[in-house]
Amino acid sequence: MGDMADMTDKTTRPIIVPTPTFDGSPEEFEIWLIRFRCAMRLSRVADEKKKVAMLLCSLSLPVVGMLIARCSPKDITDCTYDELITLLEKDYKPAPLPLAEYQLFNARQKAGVSSSDFAVQICTIAASCSWPIDRDRALAIAFTMGIRNDEIRAQLLESDHKTLNLALEQARQLESIQKACSRGGQRSTNSSELSSHNQMQHQRPKQTGGSTCHRCGGNNHRGDSCRFKGETCRRCAKIGHIERVCKSRPKH
């Protein structure tokens, strides 16, 4: 009986876990709150006063000062745990930003950043967007438009990817081709090589006349039905086509 009691005591005994400290950085608030609640759950703290005490001991001095000001004239130790959490969320929890969608679709892959890391960046920005829009397709578009390599981006634009993973898969394949050519002593993969690979990945019917769209360079549709007819060119700033088919000379 004694051994059984010892075993039961060990399985029900609370686990003392050091609580993380929140320093007032809004971008870290939600992660901190998840970890803090996990520590509270493992410690099995149920008493209201003890919960308040643990919370206050897990906040930096400036954050506690903010709470004191918010609670005034009421003493902060007389506030409930839920009241203090609500005050923290009002001040530090990031709210969806109305302009976050613009940041999402204007995001650009920087030099030295892999496709995988850029995909993570896109998902992070998307967390601040106000939905609903078709999230999967929106992520794929933002990823494609933000790809730094012009040749890879041009090939990605040949397909309307329904999800980020599909766009990322093709981008990785195209990056692998370029790296393989570089190791072989060749210059950066040209557009014809990437186009050949793209045709293998996405077999698409072509127009019998063999003409290309003057808005995007595609060969499977007419200009009046092109999805880029409302796009603003990055080179000449005119509406109706994209940069890779622009005939305007760059300004010096």
UniProtKB/TrEMBL annotation:
One of its GO terms (molecular function) is nucleic acid binding. InterPro entries: Retrovirus_Pol_polyprotein, Znf_CCHC, Znf_CCHC_sf. SUPFAM superfamilies: Retrovirus zinc finger-like domains. It comes from the Eukaryota. Residues 212-228, 232-248 form the CCHC-type domain. Residues 185-211 have a biased composition (Polar residues). Residues 179-214 are annotated as: Disordered. This is CCHC-type domain-containing protein. It comes from Plectus sambesii.
